[in-house]
Amino acid sequence: MRVVIAGAGAVGRSIAGELLENGHEVLLIDNDPDAVAVRRVPEAEWLLADAAEIATLDEAALERCQVVIAASGDDKVNLVVSLLAKTEYGVPRVVARVNNPKNEWLFNDAWGVDVAVSTPRLMSALVEEAVSVGDLVRLLRFSQGEANLVELTLPQGAALVGTRVGEVAWPQDTALVTIIRGVKVLIPDPDDALAAGDELLFVAAPAREAQLQALLSPRPVKE
What we know:
11 strands, alpha/beta, 5 helices, about 25% helix, potassium
């Protein structure tokens, strides 16, 4: 898979390193000569240019890319890169970094963004996930399709503890994608029984999140 990353700072280089280790072809673009540190990611292609310019994206051959990642520290640049990648080059998958949470509402399919990643939001979500059991935590927003990746740790006393996955009437527009049980990552099977302490990851429509949390909440205590 060919991936172009706009923004060769610490975030962009880290993503590039991961993708290269997994056998993908990566091109990093940045207009800051200090950021174009080829020695740090020598396996990648590098381009010293402004990623928000059509001429640069032509040179990068975006039409041959399967994924574009707008990972600069400037939200305006990331939006422009996303829009150009989707509308001018038809890139199938566009992932954009949101630096300022106040701008998150802009990162949607109208700007060509398929997946918006807000680092501050993700960090706060991970903190919430570490301290709360039974609360639904949004980890990631998929702009296209209006869905979120959400996590909920099944609490003791939840009605679904011991219930098989295939027997649960999940809310509409909701899919259980992973069960994390201790150190194991499980692909949900209809015969798997849910256990207290399971971390459940769902892709869910925002309108279904309240139903999902209610379904997985502890039984009310009878007085």
